[in-house]
């Protein structure tokens, strides 16, 4: 099973709402990622988790709050978002291994959640 | 993070080979060359990666210049399903971070 699943597929929320995006993988990967992709633009890295601990935060505003409750699950909690935060949010995962470092960098992506902030 | 330069768009005819170029003159010794593609309405998909030697897999081939400052992704027989944005990415084996450039939009004509 090489699938990364994301729910919901689409989400519309107001600027005062609180919502969460969910990502799940069952490949035994211990690194998980959140990316943001605006229309016609490449994905931009937001967060990296390694062994359930946040290892990279690419200076993302605090209205985005990631959480990794276990090795298979990654959440992105959203609060007080702005219309410019509307985008496709992509989750990815990869192996973490001491002996084959190059395997760490092969990432498997989910289909994304299309977020619209009104 | 080292950057890559790719043409914005390319066209190909179905069942013909396609060569997608990528320049990465600031590549460091620990950077792997990765290619991902993103089909419409989907997340990116890993295609191939290499360090120094040319690589082949069931999807494509990767030709790496001897000085590693450029590489070429080769699709041997393009199909309509290969129409996508192709990203050439330098990935540090230390961080594992994927920093996407603008990519090349490949159109495949029947």
Written overview of the protein:
The complex is a heterodimer of chains A (118) and B (110). By secondary structure, chain A is mainly beta. Chain A has no helices and 11 strands. In chain B, 0% of the residues lie in helices and 47% in strands. Chain B is built from no helices and 9 strands. In chain B, the strands form 2 sheets. Chain B has a 5-stranded mixed sheet, with no helix packed on it. In chain B, strands 2-7-6-5 form a 4-stranded antiparallel sheet, with no helix packed on it. In chain B, a hairpin with a 5-residue loop joins strand 6 and strand 7. Chain B is globular and about 40 Å long. At the A-B interface, strand 5, strand 9 and strand 10 of A face strand 3, strand 4 and strand 8 of B.
Total strand segments of chain B: 9
Distance between the termini of chain A: 36 Å
Find the structural class of chain B using helix and strand composition: mainly beta
Sketch the major β-sheet of chain A. 7 strands, mixed
Shape of chain A: globular
Q: Could you tell me how far the N terminus lies from the C terminus of chain B, measured between alpha carbons in angstroms?
A: 38 Å
Series of secondary-structure elements of chain B, N-terminal to C-terminal: EEEEEEEEE
Q: What is the residue-mean pLDDT of chain B, rounded to a whole number?
A: 92
The most extensive contact between chains is: A-B, 23 and 25 residues
The side-by-side strand order for the widest beta sheet of chain B comes to: 1-9-8-3-4
Alpha-carbon Rg of chain B, integer: 13 Å
Radius of gyration computed on alpha carbons of chain A: 14 Å
Helix-strand string of chain A: EEEEEEEEEEE
Helix content of chain B: under 10%
């Amino acid at each position: 099973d090489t699938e990364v699943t994301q729910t919901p597929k689409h989400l519309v929320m107001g600027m005062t709402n609180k919502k969460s995006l969910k990502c799940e993988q069952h490949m035994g990967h211990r690194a998980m990622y959140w990316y943001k992709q605006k229309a016609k633009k490449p994905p931009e890295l937001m967060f990296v988790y390694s062994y359930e601990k946040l290892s990279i935060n690419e200076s993302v505003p605090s209205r985005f709050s990631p959480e990794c409750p276990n090795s298979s699950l990654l959440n992105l909690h959203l609060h007080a978002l702005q219309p410019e935060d509307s985008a496709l949010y992509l989750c990815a995962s990869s192996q973490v291994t001491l002996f084959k470092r190059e395997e760490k960098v092969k990432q498997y992506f989910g289909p994304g959640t299309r977020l619209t902030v009104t | 993070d080292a950057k890559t330069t790719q043409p914005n768009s390319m066209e190909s005819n179905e069942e013909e080979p396609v060569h997608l170029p990528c320049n990465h003159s600031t590549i460091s010794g620990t950077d792997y060359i990765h290619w991902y593609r993103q089909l419409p309405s989907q997340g990116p998909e890993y295609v191939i990666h290499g360090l120094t030697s040319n690589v082949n897999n069931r999807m494509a081939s990767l030709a790496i210049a001897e000085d590693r400052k450029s590489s070429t992704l080769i699709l041997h027989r393009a199909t309509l399903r290969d129409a996508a944005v192709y990203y050439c990415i330098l990935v540090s084996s230390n961080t594992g971070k994927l920093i996407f450039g603008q990519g090349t939009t490949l159109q495949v004509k029947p």
